[in-house]
Write a structure and sequence with these properties.
The chain is mainly alpha-helical. The protein has helices at residues 2-41, 55-66, 78-81, 128-137, 147-155, 158-167, 177-188, 196-201, 210-221, 248-251, 261-264, 296-308, 314-325, 333-336, and strands spanning 238-240, 272-274. The protein is globular, with a radius of gyration of 25 Å.
C-alpha cells in the first residue's frame, strides 16, 4: 500500500513538473512574441542615425538656452518653461512669459524633441532650430520685438563675440538670429537619454517588469500604437483630439481649442493637434495641449475613450501607466546646471 502511495506521489510530482515546464515555455514564448511585436512598432534610440553637433556649438547653445537676455526684460530663459531639472518642462498648465502673461498652450518637453517630425502643438516649426526662434519673438513669451533687437543685444556681450566667432568661423558676421537658433537647436539635440524600454527593444527582456510587459501588451491591443509608435512614441503626425467624442467634455477644459483650424481655417482640421511623444510622460504633467488633466491615469483613461472608444479597466490603466514608466530617462546633472552658476559672465 505504501508503495502505491509513493508511486502516486511521484507520478503527481512528475506531472506537476511537466506542467510547470509547459507553463514556463508558454510564458517564454509569449514574452518573445511580445518583444518581436514591439520591435516592429517601436525602435530604440540606438537605431537613430544623426550627426552629433560639435562641442563648441553645443556649449554656445547651452549658454543661450539659459540666458535671460533672450527675453525682453530679462525675466525668463528657454529653461524657464523647459526646465532641465524637471525633464524639460515646468509642470504648469500654461507657462508665464517675460511680463508674467500666460501662454495659451502647455509647454512640451525638450527632451527627445529633436526626434519629432514637427514642433509646437500645431506643427508650425519643422525642427528644434526653427522652434527655438518662435518663443523668442512671441510677445506673450520672451517678448523680443525683432530679430535685430536680439542680435544687437548679443553682439554687445564679449563672451558671445568670441563664442560665435569660434563656432561660425566661415561667416563674415557670425552673430545672426539664424546662428543663434541653430546653436540652441544643437544643444537640444543632445537631450536624448536612453530609457529601460530602449534596452528592452535592444533585446534585454529583463529590462521591463512583468507588469510593464502587461502594460505594453495592453498599450498595443488597445490601439494606442496607431499614433504613438516609432522611436519617439509619437511626434510624427497630426490627429484629431476626440475622434469619437468631444474632448472638452472629458478633459473639462476651460477653453475649446480649435487646433490646426486656427491656422488653416479648414473645417476638416478642427481639433487636430500634433501627437505628442510619450518619452518621460510620467514626469511631464499636466497633460494634453491645454494642460487640463493632472493625473496620468486619468489621461490614459480619457485617451482610450476619446481616441479608440475603449473603456479601459482599472487594471489595464494601471498596467499601461506602469509601462509608460519604462520610458523614463534623465540627462546628467552637469547638463542640467546653468553655465552661468559658476561664472561671472557679462
Amino acid at each position: 500500500m505504501k508503495k502505491v502511495i509513493m508511486l502516486a506521489i511521484m507520478c503527481s510530482f512528475v506531472a506537476c513538473k511537466k506542467g510547470d515546464n509547459s507553463q514556463n515555455k508558454q510564458g517564454e514564448k509569449q514574452e518573445s512574441e511580445l518583444l518581436a511585436k514591439a520591435k516592429v512598432l517601436f525602435q530604440p534610440l540606438s537605431s537613430v542615425e544623426y550627426e552629433i553637433p560639435a562641442d563648441n556649438k553645443v556649449k554656445l547653445g547651452k549658454y543661450l538656452y539659459f540666458d535671460t537676455r533672450l527675453s525682453g526684460e530679462g525675466n525668463i530663459s528657454c529653461n524657464s518653461c523647459h526646465d532641465l531639472n524637471t525633464y524639460g518642462v515646468d509642470n504648469k498648465t500654461f507657462s508665464p512669459g517675460d511680463d508674467g502673461s500666460l501662454g495659451g498652450r502647455n509647454s512640451p518637453t525638450v527632451f527627445h524633441a529633436a526626434l519629432h517630425k514637427m514642433q509646437f502643438w500645431d506643427g508650425r516649426a519643422k525642427d528644434v532650430e526653427e522652434q527655438a526662434g518662435g518663443p523668442i519673438l512671441n510677445p506673450v513669451e520672451h517678448n523680443i520685438k525683432s530679430e535685430e533687437q536680439l542680435v544687437e543685444r548679443i553682439k554687445k556681450v564679449e563672451m558671445y563675440q568670441k563664442m560665435f566667432a569660434d563656432v561660425y568661423k566661415g561667416d563674415k558676421d557670425p552673430i545672426t538670429f539664424n546662428n543663434l537658433t541653430n546653436a540652441i537647436g544643437a544643444f537640444e539635440r543632445t537631450l536624448m537619454p536612453e530609457s529601460r524600454f530602449d534596452k528592452y527593444l535592444e533585446g534585454d527582456e529583463a529590462a521591463l517588469t512583468a507588469q510593464e510587459k502587461k502594460g505594453l501588451d495592453s498599450f498595443i491591443t488597445a490601439g494606442c500604437i496607431t499614433c504613438h509608435n516609432g522611436v519617439a512614441m509619437g511626434g510624427q503626425m497630426f490627429q484629431k483630439f476626440g475622434v469619437y467624442h468631444e474632448y472638452w467634455k472629458y478633459t473639462e477644459s476651460e477653453k475649446v481649442d480649435n487646433g490646426l483650424f486656427d491656422i488653416s481655417n479648414n473645417e476638416t482640421e478642427k481639433y487636430f493637434f500634433k501627437v505628442p511623444g510619450l518619452r518621460n510622460v510620467t514626469h511631464t504633467s499636466p497633460y494634453f495641449h491645454d494642460g487640463s488633466v493632472k493625473e496620468l491615469k486619468e489621461a490614459v483613461k480619457i485617451m482610450g475613450k476619446l481616441q479608440n472608444n475603449v473603456e479601459l479597466s482599472d487594471q489595464q490603466i494601471d498596467d499601461i501607466v506602469a509601462f509608460l514608466g519604462s520610458l523614463s530617462s534623465d540627462i546628467p546633472d552637469d547638463v542640467k546646471k546653468s553655465p552661468f552658476e559658476d561664472e561671472k559672465v557679462m
